[in-house]
Each structure stands twice: as structure tokens, then as C-alpha cells.
Amino acid sequence: MGMTITEKLLARAAGVPHARPGEILTVDVSWCMTNDATTHISIDMFNARLKERGIHAPERTVFVIDHNVPSESPTTTATQNKMRAFAREHGIPLHDGEGVCHQLILEEYAKPGDVVFGADSHTLTAGAVGAFAAGVGSTDFVAAMVTGQTWVMVPPTIRIDVEGTLPEGVFAKDVVLHMIGDLGADGATYKAIEWGGPGVQALNTEQRATLVNMGVEAGAKSSVVEPDEETLRYLREKRGADVDTGELLASDPDCVYERRLTYDLSTLEPVVAYPHNVDNIAPVTAYEGTAVTTGFVGSCNSGRIEDLRIAAGVLRGRKVLPEVKLIVAPASKSVYMQALKEGLMDVFLESGAMVVNSNCSVCFGNQGAIGEGDVLISTGTRNFPGRSGSQKGEIFLASPATVAATCVGGYITDPREFV
Ligand SMILES: CC(C)[C@H](C(=O)O)[C@@H](O)C(=O)O
Ligand code: SF4
Known about the structure:
Blueprint: H1 5-14, E1 24-28, E2 31-35, H2 39-49, E3 61-65, H3 74-90, E4 94-96, H4 101-108, E5 115-118, E6 132-135, H5 138-147, E7 149-153, E8 157-163, H6 172-183, E9 192-196, H7 198-201, H8 205-213, E10 222-225, H9 229-239, E11 259-264, E12 271-273, E13 281-283, E14 294-297, H10 299-302, H11 305-315, E15 325-328, H12 333-341, H13 344-351, E16 354-355, E17 375-378, E18 394-397, H14 400-409
Parallel strand pairs: 2-3, 2-5, 3-4, 5-6, 8-9, 8-11, 9-10, 14-15, 14-17, 15-16, 17-18
Antiparallel strand pairs: 1-7, 12-13
Helix pairs in contact: 2-5, 6-8, 11-13, 11-14
The structure holds 3-isopropylmalic acid and iron/sulfur cluster (SF4).
EC number: 4.2.1.33
Domain Aconitase/3-isopropylmalate dehydratase large subunit alpha/beta/alpha: 23-285, 286-410
Pathway: Amino-acid biosynthesis; L-leucine biosynthesis; L-leucine from 3-methyl-2-oxobutanoate: step 2/4
């Protein structure tokens, strides 16, 4: 019986010929990443139990300051300074305000065949380039950081076959929200999601990352796209022609999936995740006319250059309603610089949007926090009460196009009117 790409990735990292769902393997970790939301917890654990043994973190660790940057309080700065000191002491690469951790892992580290663990639930984003990637808690992170290995139970795979092409006004964000609505917030708990088919092969890596990144909102442990020529193009664009392109694995024709879904992109329409759950999915048309006070384009799901181009395409020559605050946060410094080169920042600023530094921003609620009674429409990943500020605010999740179109009129708007 054949193996899925996820089973192959884990078998390879464990140095065994086969891996089957349910097996618990000890795998070598290609990269382990942590950010300023939780690293201080891991450092305290390390210092309490391991420091006196002279143990050092191996070179496969990456630190990122992205959740609260610039820091909003002396307390946060203290935790970040702890990260900075630890990184210096152990020679750990530290990305300090350069972008959201998952975007940096995608741009600079992960490659096909890797196994990536991170102390953040959206670590699975690296699956967009054919790696096994998953979030872990601080304890498992510390173990991986000091040993270069960790345990993992092989997840069964849900295969999502995608055909057709995206209609005007419908984007990768709409696709992943459809999937979350169909599976439910717990529909893929401890499963691997494997996206494939001509509809995915036609997407670029930026769009694939949007599909993969929110798999955790359906409970997925990991989510992956089989690497191909587009993957190689992306890696060479980001890291140079001689980049190590790793191991391009693919699922065997006779592998076993636990479940299969099929999407024809041409049949999809723009959707929103309406308050207060991420799997509350409805067509945008069902909420047209709902007044909003705040908009956000950004996050590790939808803050890439592809997303900024989409939002700018709607805003070009138009104005954000003065009563609405639209915040744009590029997912990384390189996205920010690319957007400057393409004149997208001029479009945002001329429309009345506010452009902030590369960070988690409104998605995490550390910037642009909403107040009681505010209605936020966001390209972020979660919409539970209090996610982006007041518990008494409301959050709709949507594509960059729906967010931009909504901020022009001040109420939820079908972006197809603007394309
Ligand atoms: C790190 C942690 C605070 C959290 C996560 O693990 O996802 C955050 O990034 C989020 O999106 O809620
Ligand atoms: S952008 Fe949002 S989802 Fe992504 S890591 Fe930051 S807080 Fe988490």
C-alpha cells in the first residue's frame, strides 16, 4: 500500500521506510521556530532545567519578534529583551520586527521535504512548499530546540482535490473559508490536509499558503501542497538560483486517504466568516449592507504581495469612507518593499488607508484594537470575541478584495461589483 506525502515526509525524518496513521515516530526537525508571544516561556523552562547542564540550542532554531512589535509596554519589552539576549547567547537567528514568523519561514527557511515545528498554531503554513509543518506547545518546543528531534503521531490525511479556475472577485481566502465551513472548526482535528489537483497546481505559492495556513482553523495538525515547478520558482525567487530545493515528494497513487473533498473553483462565490466562529461561513451577499467601522488587510494568511495587490486593485482611484479605519500590515519587510516598488503603498495612502509595519497587527489585536460596538472586517485568521480588541466588538473574516470593497462603502460589499 502506498503512502501519502505526509506519511513520506515523516517516515523520511524518522529514518524508517514506512509511516502509517496513528504511529508515533521520533523525527529529526529541520527547523523549530518561536515568536515573542511565547518564547519567554520556553526560555524560562530552558534556564530552569537545562542551562546548568551546559546544553546549547542547535543551529536549527529561529526566533521571531512579530506579535507585539513595536512593543506596546515595558512588560512586553522585557520578554522580548529576554529573547534577544538568549538568541545572542546561543547564536540563534533573530528576526526582530522583520515580519510575521510564518511568512519569514516560508521566504527564508522551509523547503520541500523539511519537517518544521513552531510554537505557534499557524506553523503549518510551511506546508505550502511541500514540508511537514505543525504547531507545538512550549514544552515540546524546548525539547526540539535542544535535541533537534521531537515526537509526532502520524496524522491521517484528508485530500482536497481542486479543479477549475477562480472566478473574478473570488480568491484563495474564499476557498479556504469554504473548506472550513464544510469541515467545521473540528472537522480535521489531528488530521493532515493535502491540497491537490489542477486547481491548486494553477495557484502560485502565495495563494497556496493562504489555503494551507488556515487548516488549523479546521483543527488540522498539518496541511500540505505537493511541491512542483511553481515551488521551485518561488524558492529561487526568494533565495537565489542555487537554493537547495530539498526533496520533492508526492503521494503514491495507491495511498490511503481518510476522506476526500472536491472543489470546483469556478462554482465558488465570495464568503465571510461571520461572528463569532471561524466556521460560520456565509456568502458575502447574506451580509451585504452590514455597517463596519474597521478594516484590516494583513496577517500570515493574507498579508502577502498577492493580497496587497488584490486590495490595491479595489482601492485604486477610490477612497476609504472617512468614518472607517482601514489598516494594512504587509506580512514581511520584503513584502513591504515589493509593495513600495509596485506603488501599492501610494494607492493605500491615497485611498485613506493606514499602512503599518510588518507584524501580526490587528489579527492579534496588538494594533488597531477594536472597541465596544465596533465591526471589523479582516483578512486575519480568527474572529472569536476579544480576538482583535473588545469582547463586545464583532469580527468578519474575508478576502482582501471583500475587505477593501467594504471599506470604500462602509458596509459589507460584494467585491465582484468592483472587478
Ligand atoms: C502564538 C499564539 C499567541 C497564537 C497561535 O499559536 O496561533 C497566535 O499567533 C494566534 O494567531 O492566535
Ligand atoms: S498573523 Fe495572526 S494568525 Fe498569524 S501568527 Fe500572527 S496572530 Fe497568529
